[in-house]
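Workshop exercise sheet. Pairs work together: one partner reads the sequence aloud, the other fills in the structure field after running the prediction. Swap roles for the next sheet.
Pair: D.N. / O.F.
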Amino acid sequence: MIATPTALHAEQSIRALEHGVAVFCQKPLGRTATEVLAVIEAARAADRLLAVDLSYRFTQGARCIRDLIRSGELGRIYAVDLVFHNAYGPDKPWFYDPVLSGGGCVMDLGIHLVDLVLWMLDCPEVGRLNARLFAGGEPLDTPDKVEDYAVANFDLASGAAVQLSCSWRLHAGRDAIISAAFYGTQGGAALRNVSGSFYDFIAERYRGTATEALAAPPDAWFGRAAADWARRLAAGERFDPGTEGLVDAARALDRIYGRA
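Structure field:
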C-alpha cells in the first residue's frame, strides 16, 4: 500500500510490481499519463493486482447513480456538472511544489471527479477541452506554482458536455462543496455532500421538478476501495484490465495542465 508524496507513486508502484507484489496506491497513480501508463504496463507484465484509492466510486450514492445511467433510465446523458471546493487545502509543503505534486487542486481534488464521470459513463474519449487555472486569484502563469482554483469544460465522445470546478481555500461559506450531477434526456441524478461534510453524501434522482432520494448517510464508504482490493487479492485475482481506464483520466488532467 503506497501513501507517499505523488512524485513517488509511479516509481514505487513499479518497483513493487516488478518484485511480484500487488499494489494499492493512493491517488493519483502518477503525475502524468505517461507515469500512469508505465505503472499499468508493469502490473500487466507482472500479472499482479493493481488498484488506486479513487474512493468516491465506492459511495453508495455513486453506485446508485451509475446503475441508473447504465439501465438507460436517465436517457442519454448530455450534461455533467462537477464541483469540489475545499475550504482548507493541503497541510504538507510538497503539495505546493509542482515537481513533487504534479499539480494543485485539480490533481488533488479534481482527479476524483474526472475519474468518477469517466467511470460512470464507461470511459468515453475526451474531446475538446478548455481550462483556466488560478493561484491566489490571479491566472497561473509560472511553472513553479500550483493552482488553487481551476475551471475546465470538456466534451466527451458520447456527446456529453462536462463542467468542472475545484479549489483550495475558496470562500465558499462551508468546509467543502462536493457534487457530481448528471443530466439526461429522461431525467437527472446527483451525488452531493451534506452541510459541508467531507464524508456524508446524499444521492438524488430528478424528474422535472420532483426529487427522489436514492442514498443517504450513514455510509462508511471511505475504506471500501482498499477493502475491495484486499478481498480481490485474497481471492487470487491478478492483473485487472479495468485499470487501463485510469490512463483516460490522467490524459484529461494532462490537457487541463497544458501538458498534451
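Discussion prompt: The chain has a mean pLDDT of 97. What would you look at next?
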